[in-house]
Amino acid sequence: MTNVDIKECYKKVPESVVISELSEISIENWQMEWDQTTKGKITKEYFPVVADKLNMRINITHNFTSVVTGHGNIRSYLHRFKTIETPTCPCGTKDQTIDHLLFESELLNKGTDSLKSTVLKTDIWPISKNRLIRKHFKIFAKFTNEISFNKLNKVLNPSYQVD
Fold first, then answer.
1. Tell me, what's the pLDDT at 153?
2. CB atoms < 10 A from the CB of 144, how many?
């Protein structure tokens, strides 16, 4: 039997079904790769399920991306690449990581207090990053977009500037 001898049966399946099934397979493959990779640790905490992220409408901003990836103008990230001498947060207590900024740093009290009080109306604090982004996205996005990383980092080093 050759390929020429095979009956054409694909015409019986609507194109929309084929596209839908291919999409599901692609998302499943993407999820398997996402689960297996050792990269993107911080992002995985916010978006452990690829399909959930794909269903969200997110206005991507520089600050939002910095927070959900841990990359950008964050002292622990900059120190990792030898751009700055110390990863210590200007508040002086710990390294400036996303977790520190979100849950501990006194320098973001106004924004964190607003975020925390909104979350506490229906949830516990501290909250998982995945639940935070799924259930409290609007206030979380507002919080991230109000962070001024340059101002935060100038407190410790007045000559510090990363754009």
1. 75
2. 21
